[in-house]
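It is worth pausing here to work through a concrete case rather than discussing structure prediction in the abstract. The textbook approach is simple: state the sequence, then state the predicted structure, then interpret. We follow exactly that order.
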Amino acid sequence: MHELVAARLADDYSPQQVVSSLRKEFPDDPEMSLSHETVYQTLFVQARGELRTQLKLALRSGRAERRPQGSTRPKQARIAGMVGISERPAEAEDRAVPGHWEGDLIIGKGGRSQILTLVERQTRFVMLSRVPYDRGADRVAGLLSLLVRRLPEQLFRSITWDQGVERADHARFTVATGIPVYFCDPHSPWQRGSNENTNGLLRQYFPKGTDLSAHTQADLDMVADRLNRRPRQTLDWDKPFERLNNLLLSYSG
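Step two, the predicted structure:
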């Protein structure tokens, strides 16, 4: 048990994720059952050296609820031809049908670097793309077009974004891919709640105030894979990649 717990903490699982994954993997073995409080207490009491580092990672949020943060994104402007989130299909709102995504950019030091993030609403599967040089609307549209081609077209029914000017070229993206883009109401980040939560998790790897251009696409793919292999409470402790694999198998069948 100690080895499994340590290995999963090293993979950035929280104590609650560790405990739930063990219960799922060993449902009939009481010797593999423990509480997340036991994990916390063991780390607090015994943490030295590497375990202290693991404890810091395990307590990555440091608080129970989100604090409002300042933003370095470009100021919002009216985007020509945008379609509001109220027009998005109801199937996206209740997550009943896969293929509806939320997108955003996380911004680096001084607003001079950025990473494109996409999260699928039903499975919470994450995809990341490096955005070199600048976040001009044409560049973001082109990179987003490349990113969505990584998965079958059945898995892309819509993308929801905020009203940042980096999505001003949304029409070109929709023409190239056939994927409609819906825009949140101003100052309403909760309308992209899955993406907001994921961006918070990503800050463990890409801290605020750092230069994001230093990370290669291979780095971003590795981080996305780590998030996609964490068990999620919202998925009944399944992992996003497991849910996505099930969808891919259903399409191939």
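Step three, interpretation. DSSP finds ten helices and six strands in the chain. The beta strands are 83-84, 100-107, 114-120, 126-131, 158-161, 181-183.
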